[in-house]
Amino acid sequence: MTTGIHSRTLIAAALFALAGAASAQTVLKLGYATSKESHYGVGSAVFCDEMEKGTQGRYKCQQFPNSALGGEREQIEAVQLGTQDIVNTSTGPLGNFVPEVKVVDIPFLFRNYDHARKVMDGPIGQDILKKMQAKGLIGLAWTENGFRHMTNNKHAIVNADDARGLKMRTMENKVHMEGYKTFGILPTPMPFPELFTALQQGTVDGQENPIPVILASKFSQVQKHLSLTGHVYSPAVLILSPAVWGKLSEVDKKAFVVAAQKGGAAQRKKVNDDEANGIAQLKKDGMQVVEQVNGDSFRKAVAPAYANYAKEFGAEKIAAIQAVK
Ligand code: EAX
Q1: Is 25-323 in CATH node 3.40.50.720?
Q2: Distance from residue 192's CA to the centre of ligand 1 (Å)
C-alpha cells in the first residue's frame, strides 16, 4: 500500500513537472526610445507577436517604450551585459560599440528610402549585422528610424548657411557631428531622453530627427521651424542579448530572425505612413515647414568631410554603397 501511494505521488510529481515544462515561458525585456504608437512601437509589436507565435509561446516580450530603460547607448550596453534582452535602437550610438556600423551614418550617403533599404537588406547591410556578433550583440534584423530633418526655434533653414551658428542637439555619433560641423552647426551630443527638456528650456536651439520621432515626441510643442533637410538616413536595428541567443535552439533562432524581419517591415511601413501624413499634422500643430530645402547647398558643404570619411571607411566602401541601384 505504502509503495502504491508513493509511486502515485511520484507519477503526479512527474506529470506536474512535465506540464510546467510545456507551459514554461521566458519573458524578454524589449526597450526603445519612443512611444508604443510610434514606428518603434509598431515594429516591436509585430516582432513580439511573430516571435511568440514562432516559438509556440516559449518566448514572449515585455515592452518598455519611451526610453523607460534609458537612452539608446545605455540600452545597447545593457543588452551586451545581458541585463536587458532586446533593444530596437537607431544606429546613433551603435558605432561606439561596433565600428563597422559607422559607415551607414554618413550624411547624404543614401539617395532615398528605396536606396537605403536596398543597401541594408543587401550584402553590405547584412555583413554589418553579422559584425555585431563579435562585439557581444546579436543583430537580428534592420528596422528603421528614417531620414533626419532639422528643427529649431530661431529661424527657417533653406540653405546650409542658415544652419550656421545654431546649437543643435545631435546623437552621440561622431560621424554625424563631423558632417554637421560643415554646415556651421554647433553639435551638442545628448541622450534622447534629455532632449525634450533641453528644447523646452532652450539649452539647445534645435535638433534633428525623422518625422516619426518629431511626431511621436511632440517636438511641435517646443520647436517652431522644421526643414525637410533629409541630411542623413537613420537606420535602426533589433538587437538581442547573446545571453538569450546562446540558449536558443536552431529552430528558435530562425524564428527570432524571421520575426525581426517582419517587425522591420512593419516599422518601415509606419515610417512611410508618417512621412506621407506627418508633415500636414505638424503644420496643424503650428510648425513652420520648409519643404523646398536647397539640398545642393548642404551636399556642397559636406563634400570636404567625405575625404575624412574615405580615410576612415575606405573610398571603395562608400562608392559600393552609392553604387547600389
Ligand atoms: O531612435 O536619439 C535620437 O535622436 C533617435 O533618433 C531617437 O531616439 C530614435
Answers
A1: no
A2: 6
* Whole-angstrom distance, CA of residue 279 vs CA of residue 230: 13
Nearest CA residue ID for atom 3, ligand 1: 192
Structural domain boundaries of the chain? 25-323
Cα 178 to the chain's mean position, in Å?
20
Q: What pTM was computed for the model?
A: 0.93
Smallest CA-to-CA distance from 271 within 153, 141, 116 is with 116
177: phi then psi, degrees, rounded to nearest 5 = -60, -40
Q: Is the CB of 293 under 6 A from ligand 1?
A: no
- Quote the CA–CA distance of 325 and 323 in Å, as a whole number: 6
pLDDT per position as a tens digit, 216-264: 999 999 999 999 999 999 999 999 999 999 999 999 999 999 999 999 9
The per-residue pLDDT for 2 is 46
* 267 in contact with ligand 1, CB cutoff 6 A: no
Nearest to 89 by CA among 170, 47, 31: 31
What sections of 132-249 are H helices per DSSP? 174-181, 195-201, 211-216, 242-245
